[in-house]
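step 4 of 6: structure.
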Amino acid sequence: MARRVTLIDVSSAAGVGIATVSRALGDHPDVSEATRERVRSVARELGYRPSVTARALRSGGYHAISVIVPDAGWGWWEPVIRAAFRAASDEGYQLMVHPVAGIDGGTAAVVEGLANVPTEGVIVISMPDQDAVRDACDRIALPAIAVDDTSRAVRFPTISARNREGARAAVEHLIAQGRRSIALLRAELGDSPTDWGDGLFIDERTIGYREALEAAGIAVDESLLIDCADPFDESREIWPELDAALERGVHIDAVFCLADLMAAPAVRTLRARGLRVPDDVALVGFDDERAAVLIDPQLTTMRQPYAEMGRFAVELLLRRIQGEQLEERRHEFDTSLVERASTRR
Amino acid sequence: MARRVTLIDVSSAAGVGIATVSRALGDHPDVSEATRERVRSVARELGYRPSVTARALRSGGYHAISVIVPDAGWGWWEPVIRAAFRAASDEGYQLMVHPVAGIDGGTAAVVEGLANVPTEGVIVISMPDQDAVRDACDRIALPAIAVDDTSRAVRFPTISARNREGARAAVEHLIAQGRRSIALLRAELGDSPTDWGDGLFIDERTIGYREALEAAGIAVDESLLIDCADPFDESREIWPELDAALERGVHIDAVFCLADLMAAPAVRTLRARGLRVPDDVALVGFDDERAAVLIDPQLTTMRQPYAEMGRFAVELLLRRIQGEQLEERRHEFDTSLVERASTRR
DNA sequence: TTGTAAGCGTTATCAG
DNA sequence: CTGATAACGCTTACAA
């Protein structure tokens, strides 16, 4: 490990003061062109690299922010990160991604770990327990923004999709195609805490589903609300609960999947029962995540405006970092219908 | 922005010297229990948080490493990151993830940006051009490890899968099931640089395919090697090249997809031609990435030992950081067959 | 056991 | 235009 080259090395090699070197390298106005040139070439020769740490220490900012992403496979939030990354870059900030990666204590523990990271703030994607994370943030005095629609408690400025309206639009799309027996495939959260928190969005999307049916004058058939246990296992083949309903002879001509991820096993369940998708049963999802185009048929779904959400998260966070006081409230974004083969007539 | 609480604040509030505070908080042996307690409680009251920067500056290390991940959707490398994260934690290192996220200049540019990040080294996943990245690393004097099998040039210690052997095993699995007309679905890289670099693994897997056939005494039918243009668009419905082959009447009873990602459109192509999977045509992929369980039928594939690869990448990098000289060579890991419905008889 | 003081590598403030 | 010099907040000899 060769000793690092510092400003002092450069200054003595160039025969100037260390302040001059700093100015020359930092594009300050008050340096003669000649000196600047000389210093630059000497610095290059010596392989001088400024120390990020010293600079940060002196100037009091790391110019870096963090994003914490949940554990259950890299999902819909990937485009959020991408946009956040660009937005941060534009403001001269580095963006670091921290996966929860099965850390004991979950999101809150990861936040706590950020005490040892040179970061000025954090965007937490999917926060099962805003209260716990809030405590962690307070302990280490770190500004945070939530991108999340899984928890009722709002202890941060929180960015999420307009779930109720989105679900309503999804179901209205099915109705417009003449579907009348529309099942709602939901996740049953059980007692233990999950990545889906208390599942606020489940309730919201359910309400949207009911609204669409009621508005169309279709009575809600409660036997079409199907709750699937253990919804987090992506590798499962079929949904036994849906299968059981079909076995009982429940008539279904469309399925609204609460999340795109639930669609893959749903398609397999239907096919195994001899039903064709979309001919016999149409399918709509929610999220427009990567899985939507991988499954067959490609899934019609409600897209969340991920790029905008990511950009806005960064904007809010930077404002917080600059000292602005922000309201602890939800900021909701409109979803849009993406039509694909699973609802094609 | 309240002024930050420093050691000095704590020391004066607790009525001791700043060194004592530092020792008390840092679990040093030479502090009386009483003092330690008092200092601790004062620090807590004042909300003292040590400055990562000052600490790093003083002790000369950031204790953080980086991973650069490619751009094309979060794919197979997600478990690599997860394992790397744990391994780094175990050694007291923070791990930061940096997506390429469409940055102009690609991977090399991201590396260059690391000059402004307090990181001691970088693991680059998927490095289309090892030469360019090498230059960037040299410029900013950053140790790097590659996790990659896309480039022939080896300018870093490089971790990859044993592609040839894996491909051979995949095809042997098909042969063992009685398949004889086995197509190889490949990606055509074209002229512009892509995430798949010069596609070393394409060649290696192709060789494995040939070996398996030859070993079984099956003549390689060159018309069964199908190259697909523009393979990076995950949302495409079908592979026109495969479709054209079927149209021409080429007989196929199995398809070896060079990468799992190619399987989803392959299944759709086959189904659209009235072929059943796996009854008429069996399918094998490579990578065992998330997509493998999402498509229908779930895909038999060759799994790379991601966790081991991630752990080993961290191990190598930390050794490099500690000053050890490492060979610039490939470290190859064995793949294993994961049997799923796409080859079930 | 505790306190004093010397850096770590920058940048910014002042004089020259 | 340039050069000393003082922070930034911490750790660690060295002294007491």
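step 5 of 6: annotate
 - Residues 163-303+337-343 of chain A form a domain with the Rossmann fold fold (CATH 3.40.50.2300).
 - The CA atoms of residues 96 and 341 of chain A lie 37 Å apart.
step 6 of 6: archive
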